[in-house]
Design brief:
The protein is mainly α and about 60 residues long. About 60% of the residues lie in helices and about 0% in strands.
Length: about 60
């Protein structure tokens, strides 16, 4: 896997956060809700949720 994969990603900064705030939830809570089985969210939103979870894991890993 590419070491700097994020530099090549096409991100819409703040888009998922905006969706989470519109739903009245935190980003992590909304990501968990969207990725649950049976969620009616769009595939784009589901991909954003997975990416948000990945970024959270990376942030925790770097904080150690």
């Amino acid at each position: 896997m590419m070491a700097n994969w994020i530099q090549g990603a096409n991100l819409k900064k703040g888009a998922f956060t905006k969706k989470a705030k519109a739903a009245g939830e935190s980003v992590s809570a909304y990501a968990s809700k969207v990725t649950k089985k049976g969620s009616k969210a769009s595939s784009k939103t589901k991909k954003q949720a997975v990416l948000a979870k990945t970024f959270r894991k990376l942030a925790k890993k770097r904080a150690k």
